[in-house]
Amino acid sequence: MYGNARTEYKKWGADTEKALEKCAEIPVSLHCWQGDDVAGFEHNKSALSGGIQATGSYPGRARTPAELMADLDLAYSFIPGVKRLNLHASYAITDKPVDRDGLLPEHFDRWLEWARPRGIMLDFNPTLFSHAKAADGLTLSHPDKSVRDFWIRHVKACRKIAAYLGQTQGSPCLNNIWIPDGLKDIPADRLSPRVRLRDALDEIFAVKYDKKYILDAVESKVFGIGLESYTVGSAEFYLSYAATRGINALLDNGHYHPTETVSDKIPSLLAFFDKVALHVTRPVRWDSDHVVLFEDEVKEIAKEIIRNNAEERVLIGLDYFDASINRIAAWVVGARNMQKALLNALLIPHGDLKKLQDSGDFSKLMAVQEELKTLPFGAVWDEYLKRQNVVGAEWFDAVKKYEKEVLNNRK
Ligand code: RNT
Ligand code: ZN
């Protein structure tokens, strides 16, 4: 089947061998927080807050670092290609309770020890939610200076941790700042919180690190649950901030108005930024963070990365948290679909299609794009899994077995 597929793709000018090689080299950062419904390991845990929600109560949530690491190992064994792990500050592993502003690089040494033999590089996120000092939905833009200062100290601590991770692993660690700050109802002042956020970020970024170790990013949002009327860190706010401060923007495809697409934003940013970071997710009616599927917008996002030769400029991360299904299955399905979308994009003769666009031959462009949709992609995907030593559809039985033997004992 692969041999036939290879011939079919060749007719359209696509080289399946090259695609198989290239696909395996593009890193995808798996988010640790799908494994435990964004709970983390803090000793004094607060409920998930900040306008995000993991709904469902499927049994078997990872409760300890050892459980999360074991679950990740199983998930990774079914995911082809280069994998990274995206951590949140709330996943620090400490003997005693440590508040967010007291976190240190050594609190992530166990993650480094876990990652090193697996060849997995780490990414990082400060955690500015699920905490008493974020209970009113405001952090870095809070009118109370002492609250703002607490969170400034936290993000500074996180940048130090991320730089340490990056230096130790020999690959830059993406440190992505997302804050929930917003208001439920009509604001009386939309500017002052943004000025406070800008100044807080300036204080944070006054500390300089080598870009060899840390890549700083800011993630915008349109609204959160309970924060429907106003978001301090809006798209315009963070894009302007990133552009004027020489840092990166992170685009989460659940964070825009429903007819906006992140696939269209990627090339816009590539025209101005060296790097663009992504949170690939699946918003269903809102920023619901459903598992990523192999569907149009994900395919389109992958196309924009591949056809602009931006595999090293676009940092791909996943961001979803579904607590209503087996959490390992959620990781595997989403991560495999991201890889599927990349492989699909690598099998498109982008150069020929660009020529059709430039010569104004839009009839042929449409006709060819439609023909490409029904080429035997499945055979190439199966071959990719085989070469990556990853099983096909059987992965689900293995996860189900682990559910019976391990997850169901987590009462
Ligand atoms: C929330 C943002 C953010 C979080 C993670 C847990 O809407 O997407 O990226 O999902 O930091
Ligand atoms: Zn996100």
Please write out the topology.
Layout: H1 2-11, H2 16-23, E1 28-31, H3 65-76, E2 83-88, H4 109-115, E3 121-125, H5 145-169, E4 173-177, E5 182-183, H6 191-205, E6 214-219, E7 230-231, H7 235-245, E8 248-252, H8 262-270, E9 276-280, H9 296-307, E10 314-318, H10 327-346, H11 350-358, H12 362-372, H13 377-387, H14 395-405
Helix pairs in contact: 2-10, 3-10, 5-6, 8-9, 9-10
L-rhamnitol binds at residues 33, 38, 52, 125, 178, 219, 221, 252, 279, 287, 319.
Descriptive notes:
42% of the residues lie in helices and 11% in strands. With 411 residues, it is an alpha/beta fold. The protein has one domain: Alpha-Beta Barrel (TIM Barrel), CATH 3.20.20.150. α2 packs across α10. The termini are far apart. The mean pLDDT is 98. L-rhamnitol binds next to loops.
CATH fold-level topology: TIM Barrel
- Structural class call reads alpha/beta
Low-confidence stretches: none
Shape: globular
How many DSSP H or I helices? 14
> For this structure, what is the CATH class?
Alpha Beta
CATH architecture: Alpha-Beta Barrel
Question: What small molecules accompany the polymer chains?
Answer: L-rhamnitol, zinc ion
Strand order, main sheet: write it out: 3-2-1-10-9-8-6-4
Q: Helical residue percent? A: 40-55%
Q: Mind telling me the CATH superfamily name?
A: Divalent-metal-dependent TIM barrel enzymes
What's the β-strand tally? 10
Major sheet, described briefly? 8 strands, parallel
Number of domains: 1
**Span between N and C termini?**
45 Å
Q: What's the overall average pLDDT, rounded?
A: 98
Order of helices and strands: HHEHEHEHEEHEEHEHEHEHHHHH
